[in-house]
Amino acid sequence: MRGFLENIAEKIIIEYPDLSDIKIILPSNRASLFLRNELVKKIKKPIISPDILSISEFIDELSGIQKIDNASAVFELYLVYIKIIPKKDQQNFDQFMGWASILINDFNLIDSYLVDHKSLFSSMISSHEINEWAHLGVQEFKYNMGLKFWKNIPKLYSALKTNLIKKKM
Question: DSSP code of 2?
Answer without folding.
Answer: -
